[in-house]
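Long-time lurker, first post. I've been practising inverse folding by hand and with some scripts of my own, and I keep getting stuck on stretches where the structure tokens seem ambiguous. Below is the full token string for one chain I'm working on. Before anyone asks, I'm not after the true native sequence, just a reasonable design that respects the backbone. If someone could post their per-position residues I'd love to compare against what I wrote down in my notebook.
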């Protein structure tokens, strides 16, 4: 499969090069030249998760990875459960729980697959003098997934930057207390600014090559492809006939999750529509409604991991939409959910016996809003639960007046010291820090 840089079309690479370069020239993202069509989806859905995921990913990687190697990578990467829980039997609403990996968020799928890719593709660099430096911006959950996927790996160091004070204490504890090859930096600005710093470092030859720089953000195609697999799993758990009439709702910030869903759809996975629900940072819903790309200053919300006004992956969605306009006009929508609506959704779900983190609750609110706008059509629905509720313990305790217990992964780190350094949002400060790394 050939991947092209969406900004510099002449930069064409294979999967291995796309993974190792992370970001293309002029900060362009790589994207497959064509989306493979899968045959006999009904039979595919009957396979188990790993063999099915091998079949889904194979056409994207087969020129650089054998089927056996790919299978081994997926067995190691996807080594945690992926349950779907029925929340409301009358209205057929289901929660797809993507947070059972080591960092308790859906990011474990992408980060763990990416770590497997690096282990396959850069044995030279892992054996050489210069370690691979994985530079990643996080709005809360990517950092932990990346830190846990790369912790202790030989000749790889992860540098994770995040907006200071804009992620929850427990999110911070999960990746900023590890030490070893995990370096964390609190930036005195918002996530968009962290994301921009990563892009600047990639464009800086004084950093990129000497540091053997790579990224674990959803800039990297490997992360997105891993996420395609769980849409098929949701459909498998529903069954082919039901899947065809199912509506998915995903909480969206950088639009990686939504992109993965639309890739799955373009590959042949049937569903009725996908709703990308955002918080008050609603660049995309406004763009889809008015045709004007008008990002505003990012505002802080309860769903902090989605406080993003410049969603990186939206250009990939536009690329897909250009080739399949009918799919996008009729089957992808984006809605904005206010803070009040998110809080109401947390409460409604709790009354129904389900404790959801605010991001997952926002996806549920997106579903309900969309359903109402369509006159409450009876449809099977799946909302993506992207983080374990305990990661957002403070806000859930405030909203619901309950005690939220910590799972062992969080209890272990809750009292550890934060090891992060603090920097302003000037690129020169980050550059100085990176050049001084051992
Ligand atoms: C818990 C949670 N939900 C949703 C999102 C948004 O996902 P995406 O950036 O793929 O749109 C994130 C991203 O950081 C997240 O951590």
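-- Answer (accepted) --
I ran through it position by position. Result:
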């Amino acid at each position: 499969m050939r991947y092209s840089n969406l900004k510099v079309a002449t930069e064409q690479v294979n999967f291995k090069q796309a993974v190792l370069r992370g970001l293309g020239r002029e900060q362009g993202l790589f994207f497959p030249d064509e989306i493979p069509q899968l045959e006999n989806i009904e039979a595919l859905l009957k396979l188990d998760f790993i063999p099915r995921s091998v079949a889904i990913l194979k056409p994207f990687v087969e020129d650089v990875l054998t089927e056996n190697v790919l299978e081994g990578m997926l067995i190691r990467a996807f080594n945690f459960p992926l349950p779907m829980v029925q929340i409301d039997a009358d209205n057929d609403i289901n929660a797809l729980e993507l947070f059972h990996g080591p960092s308790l968020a859906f990011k474990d799928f992408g980060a763990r697959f990416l770590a497997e890719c690096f282990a396959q593709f850069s044995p030279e660099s892992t054996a050489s003098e210069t370690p691979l430096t994985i530079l990643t911006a996080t709005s809360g959950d990517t950092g932990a997934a990346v830190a846990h996927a790369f912790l202790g790996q030989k000749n790889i160091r992860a540098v994770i930057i995040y907006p200071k004070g804009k992620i929850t204490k427990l999110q911070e504890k999960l990746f900023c207390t590890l030490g070893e090859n995990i370096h964390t930096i609190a930036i005195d600005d918002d996530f968009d600014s962290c994301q921009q710093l990563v892009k600047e470092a990639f464009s800086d030859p004084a950093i990129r090559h000497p540091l053997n720089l790579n990224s674990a953000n959803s800039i990297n195609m490997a992360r997105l492809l891993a996420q395609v697999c769980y849409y098929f799993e949701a459909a498998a758990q529903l069954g082919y006939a039901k899947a065809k009439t199912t509506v998915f709702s995903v909480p969206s910030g950088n639009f990686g999750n939504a992109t993965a869903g639309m890739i799955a759809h373009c590959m042949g996975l049937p569903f009725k529509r996908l709703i990308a629900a955002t918080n008050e940072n609603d660049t995309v819903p406004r763009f889809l409604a008015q045709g004007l790309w008008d990002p505003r200053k990012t505002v802080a919300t309860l769903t902090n991991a989605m406080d993003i006004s410049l969603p990186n992956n939206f250009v990939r969605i536009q690329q897909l939409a250009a080739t399949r306009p009918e799919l996008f006009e009729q089957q992808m929508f984006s809605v904005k959910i206010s803070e009040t609506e998110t809080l109401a959704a947390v409460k409604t779900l709790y009354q129904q016996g389900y404790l959801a983190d605010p991001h997952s609750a926002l996806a549920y609110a997106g579903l309900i809003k969309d359903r109402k706008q369509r006159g409450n059509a009876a449809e099977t629905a799946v909302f993506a639960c992207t983080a374990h509720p305990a990661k957002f313990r403070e806000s859930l305790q405030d909203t619901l007046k309950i005690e939220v217990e910590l799972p062992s992964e969080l209890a272990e780190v809750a009292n550890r010291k934060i090891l992060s350094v603090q920097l302003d949002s000037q690129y020169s400060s980050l550059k100085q820090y990176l050049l001084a790394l051992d």
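A couple of notes from the structure itself: Residues 221-238 form the longest helix (18 residues). Residues 41 and 253 are 29 Å apart (CA to CA). Happy to go over any region you disagree with.
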